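In response to reviewer comment 3 from the previous cycle, which asked for concrete evidence that the modeling workflow produces usable outputs, we include below a single protein chain processed end to end. The sequence was submitted unchanged, and the resulting structure tokens are shown without manual editing.
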Amino acid sequence: MLPVEGNWGAVLAKLIPLGLVIALSPITVIPAVLVLHAPRPRPASLAFLGGWVLGMGALTGAFVGASDLLGGVHQTTPPAWASWLRVALGSALIAFGVFRWLTRHRHSKTPAWMRSFGNMTPLRAGVTGAVLAVVRPEVLILCVAAGLAIGTGGLGAAAAWICGAVFVAISSSTVAVPILAFVAAGDRLDDALERLKVWMEQHHGALMAVILVLIGLLVVYNGIHAL
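The workflow returned the following structure tokens.
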């Protein structure tokens, strides 16, 4: 049996909303749908999923390790610097969400770089999945917050690994669901996936703005509450 250290519930309560904002972002879902139209959709989509999970895991682990180096991993309560950093990260998310709302009409079409997903080889899809998880600024901010929540939660090593895996699984869920469903059902999902892609293309600016503001408010609240 794994040792129970720290407050699992409190850490997971912080991680689940952070993972959901990544999972529900149209910029997460649309590439996963587009890669299903590659010349070899099954290997390309599975490679993209593997790359995404690897990128998310590496990014989250890096920030958990950073909080460990700063001396927070074995404390039962978060240090003051971690709480203030959460406030700063949450404020950045709110500002970014407001910016996305004000510019939402500029994001009504799929960016040109996304349209190349339909021509990807499996190798390129895997590399793209890993890179996409790392280079997006909102994902970076959320992984910083997740890493701090795990690293300063007073958890043992095994518990920290499990919480990290939960966060990565939630963040990757909307990439995994369409890809694994397509692998299982094949062409029967083409129409449904196409409708989903079109709807998210039309509304992804507004959706992303609302989600960012809500999660930013939650991160700010958690930071202030821990002070």
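The CA atoms of residues 130 and 157 lie 25 Å apart. We consider this sufficient to address the reviewer's concern, and the full set will be provided in the supplementary archive.
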